[in-house]
Amino acid sequence: MKFREDIYLGFTGVLAAISVYFALFIAPAEVELGELVRIFYFHLPPALSCYLALIVSVVTGLIYIRTKDYRYDAVSESGAILGIVYGIVTLIGGAIWANATWGVYWNWDPRETTTLILWFAYIGYFLLRMSIENPERRASSSAIYNVLAFLTVPLSYMSFILWPSLHPRLSEGGGLGLTPTMVQALVMNLITGFFIFGYLLKKTYERRMKADMVDRQLREEL
Q1: What is the C-alpha separation between 3 and 1, in angstroms, rounded?
Q2: How many angstroms separate the CA atoms of 145 and 147, rounded?
Q3: Contact 76, 206 (CB under 8 A)
Q4: Taking the alpha carbons of 194, 197, 203, 204 in that order, is the dihedral positive or negative?
Q5: What is the DSSP letter of 175?
Q6: What is the per-residue pLDDT across 92-120, written as a single tens digit (0 to 9) for each?
Q7: Which end of the chain, N or C, is surrounded by fewer C-beta atoms within 10 Å?
Q8: What DSSP letter does each residue of 105-126 carry, written as one string?
Q9: What is the per-residue pLDDT across 10-38, written as a single tens digit (0 to 9) for each?
Q10: Residues whose CB is less than 8 angstroms from the CB of residue 43 and which lie 6 or more positions away in sequence, other chains included
Q11: Rounded-to-integer distance, Cα 76 and Cα 57, Å
Q12: In whole angstroms, what is the distance from residue 143 CA to residue 145 CA?
């Protein structure tokens, strides 16, 4: 069955519009945070998409080591690119949330700090790729480095559990008291975010494959 990009984008656009409407107008204010809780609906999706992108990256990198199929290296690099993009979006969104709730954009909270470490770890991934010219060696070395860099993902996710943190939790006594309507709005925004992630991963992968094809053609001509 052929992928219909227009239908996918149309469905995603409608879902995004409904999700935003629910987050801004249907979901009630939170007891302690009031209207500021609406930032959370738009902060959590890119944060989880960042983790998802890096999971895709490390898994396909390991598959490349096993198969030596460059398509998996392309997916791995595409996932890492999106991890970097979603990571900076998460850091900016977190800073906005922190300023709104704590009165300061950055205070070295464990979640902020470990997410920043994660981001720099994957900046290192791309510096490594740029430093190696041989395609096979670049792909293998990047996959191995990816495994080490990925250790920052569970560190970031578990940080507010491992260390004292002001970061809100979605649990009883942990901070945010979400009503069923608020949970519905959050879930809708998460689903929308994952649909957007899927499209961006596909387009990033396709661009990488086209770049590889052009590079091969240039080498053949030379």
Answers
A1: 6
A2: 5
A3: no
A4: negative
A5: B
A6: 999 998 888 888 899 898 999 999 999 99
A7: N
A8: S----HHHHHHHHHHHHHHHHH
A9: 999 999 999 999 999 999 988 777 888 89
A10: 90, 93, 94, 96, 97
A11: 4
A12: 5
Cross-strand pairs, 89:
none
H helices of 32-109, in order, are 38-67, 70-102
Residue the block writes with tokens 């290192």: 124
Q: Take residue 149 and report the two structure tokens written for it.
A: 């860099």
Cα→Cα distances 39→73, 83, 147, 159, 202, Å? 35, 21, 32, 21, 28
Residue 40: both structure tokens together: 């959370």
Q: How far apart (Å, rounded) are the C-alpha atoms in residues 27 and 184?
A: 8
For Cα atoms 198, 201, 205, give the angle at the middle one, nearest 5 degrees.
145
Question: What angle separates helix 38-67 from helix 180-221, to the nearest 10 degrees?
Answer: 40
pTM more than 0.85: yes
Low-confidence stretches of the chain (pLDDT < 50) are 172-174
Please choose, from the candidates 70, 75, 79, 68, the residue with its C-alpha nearest in 3D space to the C-alpha of residue 215.
70
